[in-house]
Design a protein that fits this description.
Two copies of one chain form a homodimer.
Chain A lengths: L10 H15 L11 H8 L3 H13 L3 E4 L3 E4 L15 E3 L8 E11 L2 H6 L7 E11 L2 E11 L8 H6 L4 H9 L5 E10 L2 H7 L6 E11 L3 E10 L4 E7 L1
Antiparallel strand pairs in A: 1-2, 3-10, 4-5, 5-6, 6-9, 7-8, 8-9
Helix pairs in contact in A: 1-3, 2-3
Chain A binds a DNA duplex (19 and 19 nucleotides) through α3.
DNA sequence: CAGTGGTCTAGACCACATC
DNA sequence: ATGTGGTCTAGACCACTGG
């Protein structure tokens, strides 16, 4: 029975929140099946229909994937063939789907500047791990990424460990450090290439680049990654769907 | 009762499709209320719960807005205070919400080139109406838009008629021509400013601009607008939410 | 007050996957 | 055959809006 006001919150959303807490706590790991609807209904003492609405809300947020006949699975970055491009918006102009190769340039440690600290909800000076990497399409350099992570969440992240891993960056974070990237906010600008970036991206200094700044969130909207990509948009573009 | 296979389609989705057809045909106009769930249930001979799922699907696609206690309303671009920024992604860097002023430069007629014709599913040479306009934030020119429309759908569109209208462009299209913009696909690049655009946007020639190319769709995913915006991103950016 | 959409339940049945 | 999620129904009740 739902809590009768004030500030009414339906029962199914209360259960959504409980399930989200369990996901955050790691009660079921990414890729694993959650308990069936009937079992969850017993656990929370509600009808199967109410559990269904609760789980549907999780599925709508991509926290969970439902498979008819099989069960409900915790979403993962590891095997997502369908939504492989959910966090990768750069496409070829000719429309062909190409998944870029990632080449790691370096991994270093820094102290957070004031602005990055604010975006990651850290204190200025808190330790960061900074990765720099290239994304190459058909062997050509297209994106230069700088990725800042709170060192506290990514203990033991080294260059060789990244290079030993085969799969996407977010799959790496998820399996190796238990940090799940759920959503992100991006801000785009057009800026002139500085000398160093120009050299790496093989363009003239001052040439227009697409700058993509991203803050990535995990459960509870906690920010866990700051990223800036510089993209040479000669033969590629940033694709966005407005619903 | 749902059609029993093959290629199974649930009853509520069949009804969603019927409602969508009615919306397309203009059975209820934007801003108007649709019939109540109970009435729709009678009309289609299904339960209220099934109608509810059908309408929920429309609401998820932003075709319709549900208001508890009042009814279900056909979505409109005219009064959307909440989702005013659904099709306008340019924001101020300082985070303040500002709705830009629109200044119309000219309205002209052209014949469609091969590429625009393909994007708008027209034949090359079909007549187009082309609007050019500026978006100004706090009096400063920020975006230079070029908007191409199939002349067949926008008969009688003139400069003075646009200028006489108060409201957004899509509100204008909706109320004056019955063309409803529902979703869009955008491609972004960073390009150097050409001489003419540079002058209008008050930047140096060659300065990086954010180029935003948009194809906008109406019911049935029919393309009805092609648009290219050039954005000076000194104090503004393109904001995107990755779900 | 009556009418709307929103929640919750219980039960029947369907589609799909696996054994 | 069994278990999963997905659909559909019918009915009761709740929250909100407006006259």
């Amino acid at each position: 029975m739902p809590t009768s006001s004030p500030s009414f919150r339906p029962l199914y959303l209360q259960i959504t929140r409980l399930l989200e807490k369990s996901l955050d706590a790691g009660e079921w790991r990414p890729g694993e099946a959650m308990p069936s609807e009937i079992e969850l209904a017993r656990r929370y003492g509600v009808s199967q229909g109410t559990v269904r609405k609760a789980v549907a809300a999780l599925a709508a947020d991509n926290l969970v994937v439902r498979r008819q006949g099989k069960g409900t699975y915790v979403a993962t970055h590891t095997e997502e063939r369908t939504s492989m491009f959910r966090f990768l918006r750069i496409r070829r102009d000719d429309g062909r789907d190409e998944y870029p190769a990632s080449r790691l340039l370096d991994v270093r440690r820094f102290k957070a500047t004031a602005d990055v600290a604010r975006l990651l909800e850290l204190k200025p000076g808190d330790p960061l791990v900074i990765l720099r990497r290239m994304l190459e399409y058909s062997g050509d350099p297209v994106v230069l990424d700088e990725i800042a992570l709170p060192a506290a969440l990514f203990k033991g992240l080294t260059k060789s460990r990244v290079e030993a891993y085969h799969g996407s960056m977010y799959s790496f974070f998820e399996t190796q450090f238990g940090v799940r990237m759920l959503k992100a906010q991006e801000k785009l600008k057009a800026i002139p290439a500085d000398a160093a970036s120009a050299r790496i991206l093989n363009v003239a200094p001052g040439h227009p680049l697409l700058a993509v700044e991203r803050v990535t969130l995990t459960y509870g909207d906690r920010p866990v990654e700051w990223r800036r990509g510089l993209c040479a948009t000669h033969h590629h573009h940033y694709l966005n769907q407005l619903g």
